[in-house]
Amino acid sequence: MDNIDKTALKVFLIFIFMILLGVFGYMVIEGWSFIDALFMTVITISTVGYREVRPLSLHGEVFTIFFILVGVGSFFYIITTLAEYILSGHLKGNLEKKRMKNQIAKLRNHYIICGFGRVGQEVAKELKREGVNFVIIDNQPAAIQRCEQVGYLYIEGTASDDQSLIDAGVMNASGLVPATDSDAENVYITLSVKSMRKDLYVVARASTQEAGQKLLKASADRVISPYSIGGKRIAGTLLRPNVVEFIDFVLHNGELDFFMEEIEVKERSHFQGLTIGEARARNQTNANILAIKKKKENRLIAGPEPEVAIEEGDLLIILGTKGQLKEMERLIASA
Fold this sequence. Notes:
There is one protein chain. This protein has 335 residues and is an alpha/beta fold. The chain folds into three domains: 3-88, Helix Hairpins (Orthogonal Bundle), CATH 1.10.287.70; 108-224, NAD(P)-binding Rossmann-like Domain (Rossmann fold, 3-Layer(aba) Sandwich); 257-333, Regulator of K+ conductance, C-terminal domain (Alpha-Beta Plaits), CATH 3.30.70.1450. It contains 13 helices and ten strands. The chain has helices spanning 3-29, 34-45, 58-87, 90-105, 118-130, 141-150, 162-167, 183-196, 209-217, 226-239, 241-253, 276-282, 322-333, and strands at residues 111-114, 134-138, 154-156, 175-178, 201-205, 222-224, 259-264, 288-294, 299-302, 315-320. Helix 1 (3-29) packs antiparallel against helix 3, helix 8 packs parallel to helix 9 and helix 10 crosses helix 11 (241-253). It is elongated.
């Protein structure tokens, strides 16, 4: 239970107890009706200062003295507790978290990043650049503070915990990234996620080859090693700096207005049953088909020959502007 819920419950219970105590006391001691007893109770604990509903007996006066001491003290405790919560910012913070949870609950086809370290931050930055929705799961105060500073949606909790995953919308997500600094934690997250949703696409971070093999055994769909990719990137920049610069412009910079996209050939697609050559001939968008991933063979063919057949479930890797890609997607999707 959140702090605001505990505080509100405590304040509410104290308030109800004092009301019941006053009403019960005046009804039993003075024999008043419920309404008269309630009215006397409210004006007493709120220190309004109206006169008594009826003249009090000796026992009634003694009870009223006791009730003033206890009731007024409790009333001021309630007021100061609420004021402290509002002035300290806890109320605003907890209300903001509730608003965020409601916002996360409405997400569909979003992505979940488990761990907001160096790798998680870069993944979030790229997803934000692409304009897609994502949620971060982390339990480190520094990571939560970074999320709040940049305005990311987050769940404060352990990513391997089923409830944290559910709160992050794992049942409605399109993909998940175990990106913590611990390989063991990433393996456990993958196992937890796959036990809940076998179809969820999981791209996991691994620091070693051995950890990568364990993640694959845990049913991760893809495993990425930042150190391996970083080494290949450095070597590629040394040997082919202009090629790497061009790829960076296409994939990350956006200054050339070119993008790469993968488009699935679904049932009754306009491209289903065609060859790559026929598809290129019918393509009026000027977008380029760079590669095809064959679903049946689970094989990626770069620079496919014109006679390669396009079948249902295949993925076409296409290069073009946003407008060209959008038109190409519409063309492939049409019957």
